[in-house]
Amino acid sequence: MTGKSPRESEAILADLMMPSQANGLRSPSIFGGVVMSMVDKCAALSAMKHSGGQATTLSVERILFKEPILVGELVEIRSHVAHVGRTSMSVVADVYAEDLRTGNRRHTNACWLTFVHLGDDGKPAPVPPLVLETEADHRLHQIAARRREQQLADRH
Ligand SMILES: CC(C)(COP(=O)(O)OP(=O)(O)OC[C@H]1O[C@@H](n2cnc3c(N)ncnc32)[C@H](O)[C@@H]1OP(=O)(O)O)[C@@H](O)C(=O)NCCC(=O)NCCS
Question: With CB atoms 3.0 to 4.6 Å apart as the test, which of 20, 46, 109, 149 could cross-link to 95 if both were Cys?
Fold first, then answer.
């Protein structure tokens, strides 16, 4: 199977945050579940691009909410595959919120998810190797490998 670089699985998902997506806090910000759903969708696109087929979410290891996102802000998610096993793919996703009046852009969420490629029979199927090209590719690959080891050790 021909390898693919992390660039080939890059996915971007953007949406304008509307009042109906706010939470019930006194100073409303965007409901966390809205962000989680967008992250899952964007990361799934990365897994589908790398595997060239279906991919299902195995786990969401981390979604760190560093800062609230406000109604009226533009949310942009960027993701790519950072590590692959035989059938699984670790995806890193970053969330940015932009105030369109000022152009101020903030990194609001850092996320790690794992997907499994499913073949036409619906069963886990092998994915292409990941071709690491840059220093950043190697650094994220190492982080993902450590996370995967921990995940496998915690498996029950
Ligand atoms: C994802 C799923 C197909 C995996 O099934 P499975 O029987 O565990 O499959 P396998 O044992 O062949 O494992 C597949 C891969 O997942 C990894 N994996 C499975 N369970 C794991 C766990 N608990 N922790 C870490 N990795 C795990 C395996 O290591 C393997 O990766 P590898 O091939 O890269 O080494 C199955 O758990 C499933 O269908 N889950 C529901 C998915 C879902 O509904 N998602 C939400 C909607 S998209």
Answer: 109
| pTM listed for this prediction | 0.96
Confidence of residue 150 (pLDDT cuts 50, 70, 90): very high
Q: Is residue 1 part of a domain?
A: no
The answer to whether 47 and 88 have CB atoms below 8 angstroms apart is: no
Range of the domain at 57: 6-153
**What's the token pair of residue 39?**
């992250």
Report pLDDT digits (tens) over 96-145.
999 999 999 999 999 999 999 999 999 999 999 999 999 999 999 999 99
Residue of 54, 58, 61, 151 best suited for mutating to test ligand 1, as the one with most atoms within 8 Å of CB: 58
Q: Which CATH number goes with the domain that contains 55?
A: 3.10.129.10
CA of 10 to the centre of ligand 1 (A): 22
